[in-house]
């Protein structure tokens, strides 16, 4: 496939880097990161190999949910900078070949948003229908609560008007009534505004809750939401021909297919692959990859209009809600033995290196994820193996300040004024920081830089189809990725066991003799006629090969 055929589909093989401006770098010494801090690190991200920055919310907010409680969708929070800073950030990133996407929070606002302040004045207020109200809660009011440790219902009483409003998240985040055409028009205006300022697209927050006005998605409402996403996609295409919608849809593959737009593929451009990530951690916990293999066999083979965003860890809890109860308990026992490490009875509030306690396993997790067709997404700090601070409440334990130097390097303000505190001990900045790792060729940072380079030097990977190569060893995952033109093939082997393995590969569609060329060390391994090869893989090891065959 020629580059000219796919230039507007940049998102199909992007390397995405999610960061929270509040915790990235403080340039005015108030203890809180800012947009100028992100600008100052654009060259750092370019050196790492990032091609797309995903900015977590930076809008005006009471900041009761890390910025996801938005009180003005058009204003940069004054603590983080200005619209001028944002435009400069986008310009600087573009000049380094990096695009910028931002969060699109359509599901709810802050209760301090002017719309909600007006809506709660009276039942006849013109803004009343911007939100979802009922005189009494429905019988299923306790279903669909996102934060069960905090909220007991998805409906809250507004004492002034005596009616209840819907909130899937916190009660200070009332759900918007997206079925209202006026609300949809407001959302379109907001999308158009940020596209004019140069964003390359949006990470769409909480997609399955759109139109979920009764706490349960019904067939008709679900169809309406899909239609609405199609309209948004068309609008983005008109305003920005290569803009992308990356959706947060924590469902199994059957559920995700609908949000892609079914076979037409005209819904969301991209979705996060939650199924693979959750089964990846199950494989790491059990040293048994068979459920992961079955997941890969079920993984949707997407057309040119869609793509997966692959990830090891994101900005929320490591959710395990797509696993069975027994599987979830196995992962908890391995990686979150202390109840304080768990959250919402479904997830883990830890970062990857402290969970796995082994550099080899940590690196295996990332290599496996990068080996799949899709666009890999990193959460800031993953490139140096940052840990969490469990002294911080809830999901914020993994959203600690970026560790730039042995002294911290996040802010010149006194630490007591920092927005959050860094981990201490083994995972503190003295032991884990950018400055030291950039000088160490064996560091996590250098490993991640090399991994990103290997991914970017194989653009065919993002466009390829995936085929599992069955193995007798339950700890081994082997798969083959083949380009649409069948002119490029990569074979990836990953060992989730602590013991080395001799892996037999029966390479489908490879009938002649040839050579497997190791993508990481350049070594060459001949294979016999009929596509039969044997590969040695160390404990928690991995091998990537491209196939070379004589030209006919």
UniProtKB/TrEMBL annotation:
CDD domains in UniProt: AmyAc_TreS (cd11334)
Signal peptide: none
Gene3D superfamilies according to UniProt: Glycosidases, Golgi alpha-mannosidase II, Oligo-1,6-glucosidase, Domain 2
Glycosyl hydrolase family 13 catalytic domain segment(s): 22-416
Gene Ontology biological process terms in this record: carbohydrate metabolic process
Protein name (database record): Trehalose synthase
Native organism: Intrasporangium chromatireducens Q5-1
């Amino acid at each position: 496939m020629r580059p000219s055929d796919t230039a507007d589909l940049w998102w199909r093989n992007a390397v995405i880097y999610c960061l929270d401006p509040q915790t990235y770098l403080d340039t005015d010494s108030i203890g809180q990161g800012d947009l100028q801090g992100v600008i100052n690190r654009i060259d750092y991200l370019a050196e790492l190999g990032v091609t797309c920055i995903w900015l977590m919310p930076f809008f005006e907010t009471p900041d009761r949910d890390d910025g996801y409680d938005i009180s003005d969708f058009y204003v940069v929070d004054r603590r983080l900078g200005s619209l001028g800073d944002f435009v400069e950030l986008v310009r600087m990133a573009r000049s380094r070949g990096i695009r910028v996407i931002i969060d699109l929070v359509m599901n709810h606002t802050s209760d301090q948003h002017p719309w909600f302040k007006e809506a709660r004045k009276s039942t006849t207020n013109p803004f009343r229908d911007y939100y979802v109200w009922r005189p009494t809660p429905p019988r299923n009011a306790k279903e669909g609560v996102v934060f069960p440790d905090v909220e007991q219902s998805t409906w809250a009483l507004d004492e002034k008007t005596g009616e209840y409003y819907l909130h899937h998240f916190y009660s200070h985040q009332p759900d918007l009534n997206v079925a209202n055409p006026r609300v949809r028009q407001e959302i379109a205006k907001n999308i158009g505004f940020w596209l004019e300022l140069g964003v390359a697209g949006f990470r769409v927050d909480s997609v399955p809750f759109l139109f979920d006005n009764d706490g349960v998605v019904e067939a008709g409402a679900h169809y309406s939401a899909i239609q609405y996403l199609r309209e948004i996609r068309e609008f983005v295409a008109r305003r920005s021909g290569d803009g992308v919608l990356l959706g947060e849809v924590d469902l199994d593959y059957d559920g995700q297919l609908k949000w892609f737009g079914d076979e037409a593929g005209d819904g969301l451009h991209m979705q996060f692959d939650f199924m693979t990530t959750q089964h990846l951690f199950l494989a790491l916990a059990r040293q048994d990859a068979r459920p992961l293999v079955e997941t890969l066999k079920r993984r949707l083979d997407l057309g040119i209009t869609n793509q997966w965003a692959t990830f090891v860890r994101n900005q929320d809890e490591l959710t395990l809600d797509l696993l069975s109860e027994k599987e979830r308990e196995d992962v908890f026992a391995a990686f979150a033995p202390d109840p304080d490490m768990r959250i919402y009875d479904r997830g883990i509030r830890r970062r990857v290196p402290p969970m796995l306690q082994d550099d080899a396993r940590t690196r295996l997790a990332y290599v496996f994820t990068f080996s799949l067709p899709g666009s890999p997404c990193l959460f800031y700090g993953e490139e140096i193996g940052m840990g969490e601070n469990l002294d911080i409440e809830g999901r914020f334990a993994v959203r600690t300040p970026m560790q730039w130097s042995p002294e911290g390097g996040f802010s010149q303000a006194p630490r007591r004024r920092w927005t959050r505190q860094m981990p201490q001990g083994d995972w503190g900045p003295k032991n884990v920081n950018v400055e030291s790792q950039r000088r160490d060729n064996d560091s996590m940072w250098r490993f991640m830089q090399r991994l990103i380079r290997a991914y970017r030097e194989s653009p065919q990977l993002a466009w390829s189809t995936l085929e599992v190569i069955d193995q007798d060893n339950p700890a081994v995952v082997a798969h083959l990725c083949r380009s649409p033109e069948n002119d490029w093939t990569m074979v990836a082997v990953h060992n989730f066991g602590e013991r080395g393995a001799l892996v037999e590969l029966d390479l489908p569609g490879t009938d002649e003799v040839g050579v497997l060329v190791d993508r990481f060390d350049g070594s060459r391994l001949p294979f016999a006629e009929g596509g039969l090869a044997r590969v040695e893989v160390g404990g928690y090891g991995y091998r990537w090969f491209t196939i070379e065959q004589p030209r006919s």
